[in-house]
Amino acid sequence: MVEPILKVEGIHTYIGKHHILQGVSFEVYPGKVTVLLGRNGAGKSTTLRTIIGLLSPSKGTIFLRNRALHHLKPYEISRLGIGFVPEDRGIFNLLTVEENFRVAMLQEDGRSRGMMETIFEIFPDLKKFWKAKAGNLSGGQKQMLAIARPLVNRNELLLIDEPSKGLAPIVIDHLIDSIHKLKEYTVIILVEQNFYMASSLGNDFYLFDDGKTVHKGQMEELVQNEELKKTYLGISSKN
Amino acid sequence: MNIVNSAERKWLPKLIVLAIFLSPILFIHPKTYITLTISGLAMGMLLFLVSSGFSLIFGFLSVLNLAHGALFTWGAYIGFTSFTLINKWTGWGGPDSIFSNIVIFLLALIIAGLLVSLLGIITERLVIRPVYGSHLFQIFITVGAMIVMEELVRIVWGPNDEVMPVPMNFMGSWDLFDVVVSKYPLIAIVIGLIIYFTIYMILRKTKLGTIVRAGVENPEMVQVMGHNIYRYFTGVFAAGSALAAIGGGMWATFVKSIHPAMGGEVIVFALIVAIIGGLGSMTGSVVGALMVGLSYNYVAYLVPKAALGITMLLLVVILSIRPTGLFPEGT
Q1: How far apart are CA B153 and CA B75, in angstroms?
Q2: ipTM value for the complex
Q3: Contacts of residue B207 in chain A, CB cutoff 8 Å?
Q4: Which one in A116, A156, A196, B43 has a CA-CA gap of 20 to 30 Å to A59?
Q5: How many CB atoms sit inside 10 A of residue B19's CB?
Q6: What's phi and psi for B75, nearest 5 deg?
Q7: Would you call A75 and B223 a contact, using CB atoms and an 8 Å cutoff?
Q8: How far apart are CA B280 and CA B46, in angstroms?
C-alpha cells in the first residue's frame, strides 16, 4: 500500500478572530497532482499557508511522511523539502531572474546545478531572461519563475496557489504543459479556480466548502459529476 | 506616456542633484563655493552613515526605529572614550604620525561600531521584536527606548557637553590654489565613500546581500525559501546600529563636541534623508544625504536662518513629485 507523502488531519486555522479552516483533512500521494477546489473564501489558500507555516493551526496535525510540521516555522518546513508558490507569485521584482534563484537555492552543488539544467529545459524563457529584472518579465514568465524557483532545491512537495490567475488562455495552456513535465520531479498540491487547468493537471481532488473538506475523489469523477461542480464550484454547464 | 514617465523617473534624481550642486555658483564666489561644496559633501557623507542604517532597518524589518538617534549618540560617546583611552596609553592621536592618527581614529570607530551593534541587538530582541508589524507601537516603544538610552548616556558620561578629541593631523586645512580645503571633511568624504561602496558591494555581489535585498521586498517569501528571517533581522539591525555609531563618532569629530541629546537633533536629518532617498535604498540614502548636506551648506552661507528650512523644502518638493522618494526601488 502506498503511504501518503503529506497527511493533513482536522486542521483549524484562525486569521485574527476569523475561524477560517474548520476541519480540513486530506492526503497527498506520491506521483500525483492533488487539486484543492472550492469557491472563493472556502479556505484553499489558507490551507496552503497553514501547511507552509505562515499561519499556525489552532488544532489538528500536518505530517510530511512521519515528520510533524504543524509546530514548525516556515523556514524549517521549507528546509524539509516543501516549496511554496503563493497566489501573488512572490517574485522579487527588483532582483534579476538569476538572483531570484540565488535566494531560493539553499545549497549550491552538482545536484542543484543539474536541476537548473532541467528547469531551463522546461522553462527556456528563464534562461533567455537570466540577467533581466524579474519585474520586467511578462505575467506568464513571472509565473514560470515562481514555479521553477523552489524546484532548484529538488523539493519533494510543491504547493502552488492559483497559477492561472491573470494569465491569457494561451499562456495557461503553456503553463499546463510545463507543470505536466514537473510531475516527474515533484509532488504537487494545486489550488486552482480555473477548472480547465485543474482538470487538465489533477489526479486527485478535494472540494472545500466553508473551511472544510467536503468531498474527495479522482478528477475524472469530478469532471463527470455535474451536480458536485454546480454545488461547490458554481459551474452550471459542461466546460 | 510610459516612455515619458520612465525617462522622467530615470533623470529626475540626477537633475535635482545637478541643480542643487551647480545653481549656487551664480551667487557665491567660486573659491568659497568649493570650500562650501567640500563641507557639504562631508556633511552629506556623515548624514548618509546615519540615514543608511535607519533606512536599511526600515526597508528590511519595516521598523521605524526612532531610537536610532540614541545609537548615534552612544557611538559618539564610545568613540570619544575609546579615542581618549587609546590616546592616553599610546599617544597615537598626537602630531607625530598621520598613520598612527588614522589607526587610532579607525580603532575608535570600530570599537564604537561593535559595541553599539551589540546594543542594537539587545534593543531589537527586547524592545522591537514584540512590536514587529505595528508601526504605531514601534514609534511609542522606540521613542521610549531613545529616552532611556539618552538618560543612560547622562548617567555614564554626565550631562555636560564634552570636547571631542581630534587626531592632530586631521586638524587644519590645505591651501590648494588659494582655495581653503579643511582636512577632516575630505577624510570624512573618503571614509563615507568607502563605507558606501562596501555596503553596495555586499548588497549587490554576495548571497547575504541578495537575501537582504529580497527581504526588503518580501520578507515572508524569503522565509518560505528556507531562510531564518529573524536571524537576518538581527543581523541587519546590528549593521544599521553599527552604521549609526560610526556616523556618531565621525559627526562628533566633525563638530568637535558631544552631548547627550545630539542624536535627537541628527535623527531629524536622517529621517529627511531616508525619506527623500526612498526608504530601504542605499543609493537613495547617499543621494539624499548629499542633497541635504550641500543645500544646507550653501543656504547656511547665503541665508543662515533658512538653512534648516531648505531641507524641509527639499523634502516637500521631492515628496510632491515622487511620494516614495527618489529611489523607491531599493539598493
Answers
A1: 11
A2: 0.90
A3: 102-103
A4: A156
A5: 12
A6: -60, -45
A7: yes
A8: 18
